[in-house]
Design brief:
By secondary structure, this protein is an alpha/beta fold. It contains 8 helices and 11 strands. It has helices at 14-26, 37-46, 63-71, 87-96, 108-121, 160-171, 179-185, 192-209, and strands spanning 6-10, 30-34, 51-55, 78-82, 100-103, 134-137, 140-143, 148-151, 154-156, 219-222, 226-229. Helix 4 (87-96) runs parallel beside helix 8 and helix 7 (179-185) packs across helix 8 (192-209). It starts with 5 loop residues before the first strand and ends with a strand. Mean pLDDT is 88; it is low at 125-132.
């Protein structure tokens, strides 16, 4: 059985696309490449990927718009490559549903570290058939063993980062976890920008859990202490 993760690189710069493809193949991945969003859509229509590495600045449909579109039907991890170092641009990317971002120019080794960190967060689908441990969050059920969230008979799609956040919170329910601790657990660099990024991910997660995300009942903000999962 082939266990090599399959990555899709989407970048309109042929040179960068080629270099990344070669580097990542040497690093043990299967790699497909697309030259723009339309090309990526054609590839995605026929293949499943473990992760998508996506340039933000592309002619035609940009990376942010493509991320939003992919998120409507898929929770495949997405890493954005952005030439803009501005925090706001990164926040927009995370709000669109990306799991992480990397500003150009970057060291290929840094990209590799980030890719591996994200792939480690994806829950194993063939979790042990142990007695399921469920957390109840109103109409939502969260299966701790499988890392799955359900609403009735419907599986709630979680991104890799949202899955990891649920895993972190469900390990210590009813205990607040600081933003800096969450940044650390997610394998991110420390810093205010990353703490803001965590806030964005929490906001996205609340939309999936809470009936009123602005007045959260289950994923609470604890003033001065961070965030806390408070199951029924």
């Amino acid at each position: 059985m082939d266990l090599q993760p399959h990555l899709l690189i989407v970048d309109d710069d042929e040179r960068i696309r080629g270099l990344l493809q070669k580097f990542l193949i040497r690093s043990g991945f299967l790699v497909s490449a697309a030259r723009d969003a339309a090309h990526a859509r054609r590839i995605l229509a026929g293949l499943d990927f473990d992760m998508i590495v996506l340039d933000v600045m592309m002619p035609g449909e940009d990376g942010i718009a493509l991320t939003r579109s992919i998120r409507e039907t898929s929770s495949t991890p997405i890493m954005l490559l952005t030439a803009k170092g501005e925090t706001e641009d990164r926040i927009v990317g995370l709000e669109a549903g990306a799991d992480d971002y990397l500003a150009k120019p970057f060291e290929p080794k840094e990209l590799l570290l980030r890719i591996n960190a994200i792939l480690r967060r994806v829950p194993e689908s063939d979790a042990a058939n142990a007695a399921p441990k469920m957390l109840k969050l109103g109409p939502i059920r969260y299966d701790i063993e499988r890392g799955e969230m359900w609403q009735g008979d419907d599986l709630v799609r979680l991104t890799a980062t949202e899955s990891q956040l649920m895993k972190i919170f469900s390990a210590t329910p009813a205990e607040p976890i600081s933003r800096s601790k969450l940044v650390e657990e997610l394998g991110r660099d420390r810093g205010q920008a990353q703490e803001r990024a965590v806030d964005v991910q929490i906001t996205r997660l609340r939309r999936k859990i809470e009936s009123d995300p602005k007045q959260p009942r289950y994923l609470q903000t604890v003033r001065g202490a961070g965030y806390m999962l408070a199951p029924d």
